[in-house]
Amino acid sequence: MFFIGILLPYDDKRLLSSGSKTAQSPLTIALSDAGILPAAHLINGLIVISVISAGNSSLYVASRTILYMGRSGKAPAILGRTNKAGVPWVALLFTNLVACISFLSLSSSAGKLYSALITLSGAITHIRFRQALAIQGEDTSVLPFQAMFYPWGTYIALAANIFLIFFQGYTAFLHPFSAEDFVVNYILLPVFVVLVLAWKFAKQTKIVKLEEMDIWSGRREYGDDVTEDVSKKTIWTKIKDIIVG
């Protein structure tokens, strides 16, 4: 970023012009100024090559990870199959399928739905956690952090996210009905339900009763972390920690 920043003046009009094809592209502008006319095509080509390389590496790592999970019993055994050349074709197909589904994130509605589902899960978890504390007779004062406005704040957040999940894609129902928008806006709902039910069916899990819920295992106690005495650090050590970490 430092070298890109010194290629052009900060007030270059081509960076600030929304109608310019080179807006927000200092590399393209710098190459054009250097007399390389097809600079935009060169930059685009480099970006495409980088994207293909990154995608290839990601597919390789993801497919081999799924292959290991399939062979170690952490995923369906079919994902551990390979062909005669040793290529994990099932895991590779599965990885590509998930990659294609991830393109739904290009839709802002799909992103909102995903965020709402995550927040909804967190709200339900928080409510059950606090209910378990009450039923088991635990004092909430021992918690290092307590949510403000509980329980009404959590219930309001829960209701708001349920509303958002079902109504964020209402435009798909406007005349005329758009099947494409409907799928993009709501495809995550059946996927979410199928994944939850599949896990519960495969692992034979059940909803844990509040009085049986283990709420303290793995809890970190105060004083477990040994912190370094900051007062003994020199000024140069503090600067190094800020810059290097």
UniProtKB/TrEMBL annotation:
Q: What Gene3D superfamilies has UniProt attached to this entry?
A: Amino acid/polyamine transporter I (1.20.1740.10)
Keyword Transmembrane listed? The answer is yes
Q: Which residues cross the membrane?
A: 42-67, 87-107, 149-170, 182-202
Q: Which GO molecular-function terms appear in the entry?
A: amino acid transmembrane transporter activity
The residue ranges of the Amino acid permease/ SLC12A domain are: 1-210
Q: Which UniProt keywords apply?
A: Membrane, Transmembrane, Transmembrane helix
State where it is primarily located.
membrane
Q: Does the UniProt entry include the keyword Transmembrane helix?
A: yes
Q: Which domain of life is it from?
A: Eukaryota
Q: How does it sit in the membrane?
A: Multi-pass membrane protein
Sorted alphabetically, the Gene Ontology cellular component annotations on this record are: membrane
Recorded hits in PANTHER family, A to Z, give: AMINO ACID PERMEASE, GENERAL AMINO ACID PERMEASE AGP3
Q: What is this protein called?
A: Amino acid permease/ SLC12A domain-containing protein
To which species is this protein native? Answer: Arthroderma benhamiae (strain ATCC MYA-4681 / CBS 112371) (Trichophyton mentagrophytes)
Provide the taxonomic classification: Eukaryota, Fungi, Dikarya, Ascomycota, Pezizomycotina
